[in-house]
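ok posting inputs for the adenosine-5'-diphosphate job
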Amino acid sequence: MPDKILLLPDNIANQIAAGEVIQRPASAVKELLENAVDAGATEIKLIIQDAGKSLIQVIDNGSGMSETDARMCFERHATSKIRNIEDLFHIRTMGFRGEALASIAAVAQVELKSKKAEDVTGIYIEVENSVVRKQEPVAAPTGTSIAMKNLFFNVPARRNFLKSNAAELRHIIDEFTRVALSFPGIFFSLTSNGQQLFHFEAGSLKQRIVQLLGNNYNAKLVTVREETDYMNIYGFVGKPEASKKTRGDQYFFVNNRFIKSPYLNHAVMNAYQEMIPPDSFPLYVLFIDLDPAVVDVNVHPTKQEIKFEDEKIIYAFVQAAVKHALAQFSITPTLDFDLDASIQQLASVQQPFTEEKKSAAASGSIYKGFTQKHQAHFIEKSDLRPWKDIYGTGSGTSPVESGEGTPGNLHPSPATHYLPPADTELTQLLNSYITVPSAYGFLLIHQQSAHERVVYEQLKAASKDKPVAAQRSMFPATLEMIPADAAVMEEIMDDLKLLGYLIEPFGKNTFVIQATPADVEPGNEKHIIDVLLEQYKHFSSEVKFSRREKLVRSLARQQSIKTGVRLTEREMRQLVTDLFACEQPNATPDGNPTFLEFKREQLERMFGK
Ligand code: ADP
Ligand code: MG
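and the output
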């Protein structure tokens, strides 16, 4: 038998290796953009043709390369970013494996133009199939331009494997977006088939997010920022009303590298619990920075997973940071900041995580970062007490300490038994607010927002279990509508019926209101339906809730007592009682506070006492 093992020729070995780094046009885009970032560019332009299949070009104004470096950069394992294995644990650049350009040169026709600031002339190099075809001096601006043409021209099997232009362009835009988000201080543009798709001026992270998602997001972003010795988190999360029905604008970056982490995503979702409908997705752009030594960066560059030395700490940190941010924006006291009890008990939270690291940890890092007051999961409870504390009935114990809470679900239970005593004095101010004394000061309740919450929860229960009691009209009103509204009405008729409105079609674009909820004043039906339709349409464009959810929200908003309406003592008491019987009394369905708490202490301080 003859021996069977052969050494693969270089070009085939290169092509195989290249396949792992460059799977599709978008992977080349990512590598080239990252190289430009690593080169310190402040302006990076991406130009593509045919979704990158015929051309991907990246032009930067970064450091540029010398003649020797320009030739070297296409060699496998040629990198200027690490020198030895130790460097891997301190890596701060995006690349470090020296594989990208070698891979690109193995599967495309590449033209490189580069010049360093201190050089007079630049260098031009053409490479094809890993072989240098041409090299000559060239006049060029400082920086680098790399054009790769006809990706996979020499690997037809791979070329055929590429998806439609629309799909490949989608992937390119995703990569472009991630890099552009993680470096808002750099100008980026993307031109596809001669048309400029993105033009991002350098600016702050918030500006970059707004450039990407649209101006209307400006007011919908909440800042997240927590710092500890172990790790920092920075970025923005969307207010609850900016949530969407489809996953999409959710980004995590670890040390500026985009990652996909269902685990950390879960931490964020957890922080939004009860603030958004269960089937919707909040917006977030979060940057976690930590010592590269505790992250496994040695995972493959095309993989977006990451390994942390202690995942649970990071989970807890992310969750607490997001909750904190959301609470500050909504200024509501009920959010509960205690960590999941199982996380609290982790050895790594309570003490240094290994014996060896004890001394290091004691002088900084995890231990200090996570045991100090004011750190993310030790956000002071005094600002964030559960309900019963407000009325002083719980003698200051939170559900966690008294063992009432179920770990992982520490939301306050319905607050009926924490109601203010019957003789508590209630006052209406400006025909809009109700003051209620509390154990530590007083609550200022916003009557309209509070009532909106109450009606919302009542309708929500009604639509699920039993329909709202309806009352037949003696003289049913007819509604004539424009075709667009008629279509909306057709869509919501069935759900409206559950909510007490029996509306039936009556010829083209016309409807009859057969019955309304018992408390609707006769003669007012038409107006109510008009306003309801408007609100429903407003929600339709704003947030993609379920139809039922949109209706319930519209009705709640519409039926709530408005500000400016004088309330009797009895009405006030009813409202306060109903509010505290709610499952989530602290905010309106779209996240505005229903009340604020003013503590005596705060007041005294404001008066300089
Ligand atoms: P890596 O980024 O992992 O080092 P690459 O194959 O992507 O490997 O690049 C090889 C080397 O070529 C880099 O280390 C860098 O020195 C140089 N290089 C690549 N792109 C650029 C660029 N746009 N500007 C300056 N130098 C570059
Ligand atoms: Mg690189």
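notes: The chain has a mean pLDDT of 80. The chain has 20 helices and 22 strands.
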